[in-house]
Design brief:
Elements lengths: L12 H9 L4 H13 L8 E5 L6 H6 L5 E6 L2 H10 L4 E4 L12 E7 L8 H11 E12 L1 H4 L2 E5 L2 E5 L1 E2 L8 E2 L6 E6 L5 E6 L2 H10 L3 E7 L11 H9 L3 E7 L1
Parallel strand pairs: 1-2, 1-4, 2-3, 4-5
Antiparallel strand pairs: 5-13, 6-7, 8-9, 10-11, 12-13
The chain binds S-adenosylmethionine.
Length: about 250
C-alpha cells in the first residue's frame, strides 16, 4: 500500500513509548486519557479498532474492559513495531486512516486518541470510519481543542502567553489566533522537529459527523484531573480551566 506520510511519528516512536508508559506525558495522564475513559461505552466482547494507535499503550487500558479483539493501525512503521513487541495479544497494521485495509462493518467500536487531527480531509476519514463500523457501532475520538491549539504565542512582561483575542480599540485591527478556521497548525517539538495538525472548532466536527450520518451521543471538553495537583499545580490550574482537548462519542 502506498502511504501518504504527512506526519512522521517514526522519529518520536521510542521516546513517546517511554514517556507514555512512565506517566511523563501529563497531557495524556491527567487530561486526555481521563476524559476518554469517562466516555467509554460498554466494551465487553466488542471488536475494537484503535485508530492512529501509535505505540499503542491504549491497548493496555482498553483490554481491562474485556473486549473480544483489539486491532490497532497507525501510519508510523516504527510505532507499530514497538506496539507489536509490547502488546503481542493485539493485531497491528501499518496503514493510513483515509484508506483502511478492513472490510465493511468489521468493528463494533473505534477508539482514536489525538490522531484524526493529523489528517486534513476529515470528511474522507469519517466516511471510512462509517464504512468499517457495523450497524449501531460507536466511535470515540479526541482531538486538540482550538482554545489551546489555535492560539498564537505572544511575549508580554517576560512571559509567553497562548492567546486568542482581538484588539478592542475602535480602530484596532489585530486578531490573535484563529478559532473558527480549519487551521493548519505546526507543532514544534523540543528537538526542532515539526508535525502538522489541522485544528478545528467543535462546530466543524459536528457538521462533518452529521453530514456523514453519525448520531452524536456525547461531547466533552477536557479538564485536568485533581491527581495532577500534587505533581504540578501550575499545569493543573492552567488546564483545569482551559480545554486542551475535546472528545466526541458518536454512533453509526
Ligand atoms: C499524538 S499520536 C497518538 C498516539 C496514540 N493514539 C496515543 O494516544 O498515545 C498521533 C498518531 O497518529 C498517527 N497518524 C497520523 N496520521 C495518520 C494517518 N493518516 N493514518 C494513521 N495514523 C496516523 C501518527 O503516526 C501517531 O502515531
Amino acid at each position: 500500500m502506498s502511504i501518504n506520510r504527512s506526519n512522521d511519528y517514526d522519529k518520536f516512536a521510542s521516546k513517546r513509548h517511554y514517556e507514555v508508559t512512565n506517566g511523563i506525558k501529563k497531557s495524556l495522564r491527567f487530561v486526555e486519557k481521563p476524559m476518554m475513559i469517562s466516555m467509554l461505552p460498554d466494551l465487553k466482547d466488542k471488536k475494537i479498532l484503535m485508530l492512529g494507535c501509535g505505540t499503542a499503550e491504549e491497548s493496555e487500558l482498553l483490554s481491562k474492559y474485556e473486549p473480544k479483539k483489539l486491532t490497532g493501525i497507525d501510519i508510523s512503521e516504527k510505532s507499530i513495531a514497538i506496539a507489536r513487541k509490547s502488546y503481542p495479544n493485539c493485531n497491528f497494521y501499518v496503514g493510513d486512516m483515509i484508506k483502511l485495509p478492513f472490510k465493511d462493518n468489521e468493528f463494533d467500536f473505534i477508539f482514536s486518541s489525538l490522531a484524526i487531527s493529523h489528517v486534513e480531509d476529515k470528511d474522507r476519514v469519517f466516511k471510512e470510519l462509517y464504512r468499517v463500523l457495523n450497524n449501531e457501532g460507536e466511535l470515540l475520538f479526541s482531538v486538540g481543542h482550538p482554545m489551546r491549539f489555535a492560539t498564537e504565542k505572544i511575549n508580554y512582561n517576560d512571559s509567553t502567553y497562548h492567546v486568542i483575542g482581538f484588539e478592542t480599540s475602535d480602530n484596532g485591527k489585530q486578531i490573535l489566533g484563529k478559532y473558527m478556521s480549519h487551521t493548519k497548525q505546526i507543532n514544534y517539538f523540543k528537538d526542532g522537529e515539526i508535525l502538522k495538525e489541522y485544528i478545528a472548532p467543535p462546530s466543524f466536527f459536528f457538521e462533518v459527523l452529521i453530514n456523514n450520518h453519525f448520531k452524536i451521543e456525547n461531547f466533552k471538553e477536557s479538564r485536568c484531573i485533581e491527581d495532577c495537583k500534587k505533581i504540578d499545580i501550575n499545569y493543573y490550574n492552567r488546564f483545569h480551566e482551559i480545554p486542551q482537548f475535546m472528545a466526541f462519542l458518536v454512533k453509526k
